[in-house]
Amino acid sequence: MSDDLIDEALQKEFLNLLHPRQGHFKLESGHHGNLWLDLDRLFLRPEDIRPFIVELAHKISAFEINAVCGPMVGGTLIAEIIATELGLDFFYTERMVYKSSNALYSATYHLPYPLPKMIRGRKVAIVDDVINAGSAVRGTLAELGSFGASPVVVGALLILGETGQKYLAEKGLPFRSIATLPNEIWTPENCPLCASGIPLTQLD
User: Fold this and answer.
1) Which of 30, 43, 57, 89 could be 82's S-S partner, Cβ–Cβ 3.0 to 4.6 Å?
2) CA gap 150, 15 in Å, rounded
3) Is 151 left (phi over 0), alpha (psi -120 to 50) or beta?
4) CA gap 157, 61 in Å, rounded
5) What is the pLDDT of residues 56-85, one digit of tens each?
6) Which ranges of the chain does DSSP label H, i.e. alpha helix?
């Protein structure tokens, strides 16, 4: 559910900042994939990434929002800049992972005290650095809904593949981004890399 228009020149400029790695990776969602982005590098030089965050802010400003929320860590950094740019309140969620679970989307995201009581009734934009399977956005969306907030748009600098997009479309949530890239992920039992006996890549 998106009528997002991607500026191809801006997209190319942003993609040049990424440092993709190929291999066999287990993602936060529990899916497997052959692409990994070292997202922390994006924030080493804030002046390089700020223009893209400001453009994302302009894209989501068309929606009637009065708060911005981002999941830790990358989403939080982006949410704070967008909130400042638009003069809105800034919220964030923290990740909790249950290590004993191998289920998909086992990570949960929670608003720290006293933010839950402050977000009730707000119309919120959820923003993240990259959406792939959408684990962080799913967790944040569930948390905001449980405290009476109303997420009305989702924004990301980059959207990979279709898994996250399909989920947002099912939820009736519009989404905006600076760049998109095709990408495929698999459940562990359907992973062709596992079937070929390729071990998971260890991240340094």
Assistant:
1) 57
2) 31
3) beta
4) 15
5) 999 999 999 999 999 999 999 999 999 999
6) 8-15, 46-60, 74-86, 115-119, 135-146, 163-170, 192-195
